[in-house]
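pinging the channel bc i need a second pair of eyes. not urgent but kinda urgent?? the chain im working w is below, pasted from the shared doc
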Amino acid sequence: MFVKFRNLFAFFFILLIPAHAVSDQAEPYEQSKNAVLLVLGDSLSAAYGLQQSEGWVSLLQKMWQDDNIPIEIVNAAVSGETTDGGLARFPRLLEQHSPTHVLIELGGNDGLQGHNTKKIKRNLLSLVNTAKESGATVYLQEMQIPSNYGKRYTQMFTKNYSDVAVDADIQKIPFFLEEIALDDSLMQNDGIHPNATAQPLIARFMDRHLRNLILNSK
């Protein structure tokens, strides 16, 4: 099922706006950190339109902190980021934070710009391989784009994520907005980005998919 957006033009325009607040460092985490999860993403993980503390990444960190789960999250998501931009920033981020685990949440803006799906796949594979070479365990966040881009393109775009996960032998995480984006009450006024009410839902979704994966892979 493909996510429907109320305003396709706004979706394309707003996701390409650079974020004013970019967090390459997680909030202080007092307990011993046995794992470091780096989130390499776009506006959907960068708390676009919200305070950083309201975003799902910060909420997930607090959830794990409250539960005494020794995982630190580094939020390296940037609004408007593409796979090209992620590739350019990634080596520095790996060197700076030395993550044990990486979540790649990129490709949506590539799709919105109509990039060749083969190029998107190559970039995703390059990101995965770069993370693996650093010694990190990698998870790939599935992304979706509006069906208005045409059935063939949207299917090829989404299929990339399954193909990369299989080719690279990594875990794919389901798209976290598949249901949320269909509920207007969970979206910001732009009809694109999840609002503050939706963020805890995303955090719990990601907790269900990531907590045991990370703890069992340490």
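so The CA atoms of residues 39 and 103 lie 5 Å apart. and The radius of gyration is 16 Å. — does that match what u expected or am i reading it wrong
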